Task: structure prediction
Amino acid sequence: MTNIQQIMKMGQELQAKVRELQASLESEELQASSGGGMVTATVNGKGDVKSIRIDPTVVDPSDVEMLEDLVVAAVTEAQSKARSFSEEHMRKAAGGLPMQLPGLF
Result:
């Protein structure tokens, strides 16, 4: 019976760590740029877009499609960084436990 209680306690501690980490991810900022830095996207650790910066020299009314592509590329890269950042910190919080434990999160 003691082993089950220990496992339950570890699970609760892990859940608390994960909740704390998820809350802290909102304050983290990650950036990615495209077009040689002409467009920069900033996201939080959860991947939510917080800002887009566009260098005025890249704005060409006759080529809006290129600007749209640069924005999409920057946002996609920033969100990818956020996913990697989040996954890495979740693994550390889990202390090596598999993150797919049913009913744990």
Notes: The chain has a mean pLDDT of 86. The helical segments are 2-25, 64-94. The chain has one domain: 2-94.
